[in-house]
Amino acid sequence: MNLPAPDPVISGIPYVVVEVDGTPPDTVGGLAAAEELVIEGRTGRHVVRGEGSGTDDGVRFHEKAGPGGKDVRVWNIRRGSDGVIVALSD
Question: Counting C-beta atoms within 10 Å of the first and last residue's C-beta, which end of the chain has fewer, N or C?
Fold first, then answer.
């Protein structure tokens, strides 16, 4: 059984969070309870599914390969200096 490859993203490059569970993002803290993010950046728009947890300076979001699947990558989500919520993958 072959699993589809995750969408290509560039580590360390910020992606703007444009949707959180189907609505525009409001606060960074609200992303800790999110299950799906839509991010947009240099490589286009990507849907990221997984689970988040709050940290001292934002949210750490663990992207999963399907429900209950293994981790694909980890995103660090913060509000940028321009006020936009951004996600960077490790």
Answer: N
